[in-house]
Write a structure and sequence with these properties.
With about 425 residues, this protein is of the alpha/beta class. The protein is built from twelve helices and 17 strands. Strand 10, helix 11 and strand 11 form a beta-alpha-beta unit. Helix 6 runs parallel beside helix 7 and helix 8 runs parallel beside helix 10. It is globular, with a radius of gyration of 22 Å.
Length: about 425
């Protein structure tokens, strides 16, 4: 790799916008351990067997997301077959694999025993008789304990989601809300914000270097800016990143997402933004799709790649968007259901097909969109930065040119006295 010398002051270079801030691209691979344990074989596009984490890293991915349920043994059989299996022991093992592979790790707290989304945020069975005060304390204790155990297991998160798709709140009914303010009977913004503040406090105390994500979605796009504006009334909710789910089949075209990003960037300039879930089908639409964009992006492997390309092009036009994660890319039934030319569902651990995967469900071959994702966070080819003339002013600078008030404590790459400094 080429070594680049800078004859001008690094600070001036940064201000000129010539060095790009760190970006993260990858996927929510919460089922990877289960699929590998069941015997799944992953292949590159040419049919050569690969180790999936190493392969995805080779394709430019640098971050992985994993969900965590309080006690998924309480989930319904249907939900378990859909992927509700991630208890703390499972996440410790998968999280350690991610970190050992040299990838950053995003932990997604669901704060429930099963799926949470805009239509469901069930309080965990073990917590259902707790008062609001007790739930607030429990969130702090539970979050802190999980993070302590993950750290001890070698799976320290780099990003932490405090709740999953919480546009309508969490821990229903007491934490149920309307995004723009107010709440249904039994819930309140004060309860919800108190829960979030307790969870984020534990995150900051236990993993001070991690960045905290507050995650919503776009089922009602106009509600998303309202949500974060309302949340700003509760300064005890401590977070760094706005996280969004975006699926065109459910949420609309790229203009919907781009318009939302413009509002969020203008209203919350101190926050980074990540697309923490996205996906598009390659053979048929996603289940329950409410919109059809097959005339824009054909529902084929190439159409899936074209969606990915267009999404990345749009996102790269938004300076504050620094993360993109594909949801469930690891799904494949190669060597589980489909092997030796036959089809056998006797293992019965999964239901139906997930058609927005990035490996083919029959062959395990990587699809074109998997290779396309690297273009969200391209490598520069620069291995180091040196200076010939640089005043040693003692200040620290981020790679997008901002001056820090003190030495950085969060992980990342910084400039100090003309040299790159890595904070881990």
């Amino acid at each position: 790799m080429k070594k680049v010398k800078l004859l001008l002051a690094v600070a001036l270079l940064l201000c000129a916008g010539m060095v790009q801030a760190q970006k993260y691209v990858g996927g929510d691979i919460s089922m990877l351990k289960k699929f590998v344990d069941e015997g799944a074989v992953y292949n590159d596009k040419d049919g050569n067997a690969v180790e999936p984490l190493a392969f995805m890293k080779q394709q430019g991915w640098n971050s992985m997301r994993v969900r965590l349920f309080v006690d998924p043994s309480n989930a319904s059989d249907t939900h378990k077959k859909e992927g509700v299996i991630q208890d703390l022991e499972y996440v410790k093992a998968l999280g350690k694999s991610i970190k050992d592979a040299g990838l950053s790790f995003m932990l997604d707290f669901h704060y429930s025993d099963t799926w949470t989304d805009p239509g469901s945020h069930a309080t965990p069975a073990a917590w259902k008789n707790m008062t609001v005060t007790e739930l607030t304390a429990q969130l702090y204790t539970y979050t802190k304990d999980c993070l302590q155990q993950l750290k001890a297991a070698g799976a320290t998160p780099d990003f932490i989601q405090a709740g999953n798709e919480i546009t309508t709140g969490m821990l229903w009914n007491t934490g149920r809300i309307y995004a723009g303010g107010g709440a249904p009977a039994g819930g309140s913004w004060d309860n919800f914000a108190g829960y979030l503040a307790s969870a984020t406090k534990a995150c900051r105390e236990e993993c001070p270097e991690a960045q905290i994500v507050i995650h919503t979605e776009l089922h009602a796009p106009a509600d998303v800016p309202k949500f974060y504006n309302q949340l700003a009334n509760y300064p005890d909710v401590d977070y760094d990143i706005i996280g969004l789910s975006y699926y065109p089949d459910y949420h609309g075209d790229l203009n919907v997402l781009s318009g939302t990003l413009v509002q969020l960037e203008g209203q919350h300039p101190d926050k980074q933004i990540m697309i923490v879930e996205t996906g598009y089908g390659f053979e048929w639409q996603l289940g329950g799709a409410t919109q059809n964009f097959s005339s824009t992006w054909p529902i084929t492997e190439e159409g899936q790649r074209e969606f990915t390309e267009d999404l990345i092009t749009m996102l790269n036009g938004h300076a504050r968007v620094n993360g993109l994660y594909w949801w469930y890319p690891e799904y494949t039934l190669n060597n589980i259901v489909f092997k030796n030319g036959s089809e056998d569902w006797s293992k019965n651990f999964t239901s139906g097909y997930w058609n927005a995967a990035l490996f083919h469900y029959k062959t395990g071959k990587a699809l074109a969109a998997l290779y396309e994702l690297k273009n969200f966070a391209p490598t520069t080819g620069i291995s180091s930065v040196e200076r010939d003339v640089q005043p040693a002013d003692g200040r620290y600078y981020t790679l997008d040119g901002r001056t820090l008030d003190a030495a950085p404590t969060r992980p990342g790459l910084y400039i100090h006295n003309g040299h790159k400094v890595i904070v881990k």
